[in-house]
Amino acid sequence: MNGIKKILGVVWILLGLATAYFGITVLGLPKFASGKQEDLVFGIIIMLVLTPIITGGLLIFGKYALSGEYDSED
After folding, report:
1. Which residues does the chain have with pLDDT short of 50?
2. pTM
């Protein structure tokens, strides 16, 4: 079971990196370039609030899984 947790740690880290890429390139930057106010507000929320929270959470969770913080003592 501990081996599965370490493998999933790598999955969480890769998912965090993919989320950062998707949040910036697909959801964030194109909204800034559109020129409409509602797109600008959405882009700011995605780029400055949601992407760092989601990415940071996934990366930290993956780091802890890789370092063995969730390993059972049994």
Report:
1. none
2. 0.85
